[in-house]
Specification:
Number of strands: 8
Distance between the termini: 49 Å
Helix content: 25-40%
CATH topology of one domain: Rossmann fold
Oligomer: single chain
CATH architecture of one domain: 3-Layer(aba) Sandwich
Radius of gyration: 17 Å
Mean pLDDT: 93
CATH class of one domain: Alpha Beta
Structural class: alpha/beta
Low-confidence stretches: none
Order of helices and strands: HHHHEHEHEEHEEEE
């Protein structure tokens, strides 16, 4: 708790991110990562591989311009490989934790951008130049959580927003959430895939044990099905 309190106090971020609880959420994610590293590791590894696969398969040119939306702590981001390949990288989030700031340091092609991609409380993200690839990284199911509702509409709008900003789009995100009550055996399922992705081909899929039993409550476990979608964007260069 002391580490979390110090992190909250010492992490620089816009006032709107602190006011809306987005900084608090970022600190909580970092703490859960430390507790659940073993359970999360396969998910983080597969997220990184999905980005590397897209980088290798897509026709992005010799020094592509890339943006990662929801870069966060970077646990799921192969930044060192991207920075060796890309001409410019925008890491876009409401909060850039110290871990990510240290990794981005001494990488002149990396720009940290504070933005609110929901358009509700902070500035939107506008690329400095046309993007070759934009990545939504384990973010789409979290849109609107800090604002107490409207998640479904925000997920749908997010897909449109992404396609307006790059030639190619990679979305890594939860398609379904399951909550299992260990005491009763009951499983509650929440569909999370927005209609805009319903017919899109799925490049990869895996299960992420977000909160194993004991993390939130002794008899509650939460897991999601993560999917990878690749789409054409509307930007032309």
């Amino acid at each position: 708790m002391i580490l979390e309190a110090l992190t909250y106090l010492l992490t620089p971020c816009p006032a709107w991110a602190r006011r809306t609880g987005l900084l608090r959420e970022s600190v909580a994610i970092g703490a859960r990562y430390r507790r659940q590293l073993r359970a999360w590791d396969p998910h983080l590894t597969q997220s990184k591989q999905a980005i590397l696969d897209a980088l290798g398969m897509a026709d992005l040119g010799p020094e592509p311009r890339i943006a990662v939306i929801g870069s966060g702590h970077g646990f799921d981001l192969p930044l060192e490989v991207l920075s060796a390949r890309a001409g410019a990288i925008d890491l876009v989030d409401a909060v850039h934790p110290w871990r990510m700031r240290r990794r981005a340091r001494r990488k002149p092609m990396v720009r940290l951008v504070h933005a609110d991609v929901t358009g509700r409380v902070g500035p939107d993200y506008t690329p400095a130049a046309p993007l070759d690839l934009i990545v939504s990284l384990n973010l789409i199911s979290q849109l609107g959580v800090a604002f107490g509702g409207g998640e479904s509409a925000l997920r749908e709008a997010h897909v449109v927003w992404l396609r307006q900003r790059a030639r190619q789009v990679l979305i890594i995100g939860d398609s379904e959430r399951r909550r299992q009550d260990g005491a009763t055996g009951m499983i509650l399922t929440d569909p999370l895939t927005p209609p805009a992705l319903a017919g899109a081909p799925v490049q990869a899929e895996w299960v992420w044990p977000v909160a194993p039993a004991g993390e939130i409550a002794p008899d509650l476990a939460v897991e999601t099905t993560v999917r990878v979608w690749r789409l054409d964007g509307s930007v032309r260069t």
